[in-house]
Specification:
This protein is of the alpha+beta class and about 170 residues long. Strand 6 (about 110-115) and strand 7 form a beta hairpin. The model has no long low-confidence stretch (mean pLDDT about 95). The strands form two sheets. Strands 1-2-3-6-7 form a five-stranded antiparallel beta sheet. Strands 4-5 form a two-stranded antiparallel sheet. The chain has helices at about 25-40, 130-140, 150-170; strands at about 45-50, 60, 75-85, 85-90, 100-105, 110-115, 120-125. Bound molecules: zinc ion (ZN). Zinc ion (ZN) binds near residues 94, 95 and 136.
């Protein structure tokens, strides 16, 4: 396993729509292992492949409470097949947008269909933090970020801040 660098705003790669995986093989399992290691080291509760520069529909996550983990979950080609009508509010962060928190209201329950690490089709009914994280990560696969839930004014402020930071880093 190897930790991979996490891509951050304003890198345009984060806006790419990820392509479906055709075959679950050892190369893909290696990528998922790397993604888990990267996520745990960050630390974070979820990571999409696009965040390490790979535009493929793969996400890893672990929402086990501290002291109860790890409970890693790998989802290939995840697809939301049902959303509940009740909503849940959560202050979300993103490993690609450090130090920014956005309060987002999303459906509190959902059902997701995906392929597991062995390529077996599975269905998962989720609620609470897991439902939130799943929606956040699946958004990444479609190039959607938490800042898209902000007003355009606030979004521009965040993007400007990250562009400025990127310029400063390059200058060093
Ligand atoms: Zn994120």
């Amino acid at each position: 396993m190897a930790k991979r660098p996490i891509i951050a705003l304003p890198d345009p790669v984060l806006r790419k729509v990820s392509a479906p995986i055709e075959r679950v093989d050892d190369d893909l399992r290696r990528l998922m292992d790397d993604m888990l290691e990267t996520m745990y080291a960050a630390p974070g509760v979820g990571l999409a492949a696009i965040q390490v520069g790979i535009p493929r529909r793969v996400v890893v996550l672990d929402v086990a409470p501290e002291g109860e983990g790890p409970r890693p979950l790998c989802l290939v080609n995840p697809e939301i097949v049902a959303l509940g009508s009740e909503m849940r509010l959560h202050e979300e962060g993103c490993l690609s947008i450090p130090e920014v928190l956005v309060e987002i209201e999303r459906p509190a329950t959902l059902t997701v269909r995906y392929l597991d690490r062995d390529g077996e089709p599975r269905e998962l009914a989720a609620e609470g933090l897991l439902a939130t994280v799943l929606q956040h990560e699946i958004n990444h696969l479609d190039g959607k970020l938490i800042i898209d839930f902000l007003s355009s004014l606030k979004r521009d402020m965040v993007v400007r801040k990250f562009k400025k930071q990127a310029r400063t880093t390059e200058a060093l």
